[in-house]
Known about the structure:
mainly alpha, single chain, elongated
Amino acid sequence: MTEEPSDVDGPLMRNASEQAGAIDRATDPGERRRAWTRFLPAAVLAFLESYVREGALVIAALLSVIAILAGATSGSAGWAVAGAFAGVAGLVIALVPVIRRWSFAWRWVTVMAVIALQILVLVVFGLSNV
């Protein structure tokens, strides 16, 4: 038996699950065909959202690692500490919502905040070394 989507999965995944249930409940071939035509776009959207969400998590982690490396290779003790702090904090903050299974919206907010802050750190670092 499969697990029902929860708040962690998001509205698109819940909609796709409901549409899949409609296929199972269909009693005649016409109703089943209509259920499939509603399910397929919902499933594609749910897959795409999941793909983008996981991609954003990878980008947040990658930017955190880049911040660590940028600080470590800067030649400045201050930037080395700042880069290490920003990178490790970014990794922890990005992974906590996944590990703790926070809600869909909080996952998005957290990952996007980490991406924005890591970009800010890298821009400030780049501007200070010009």
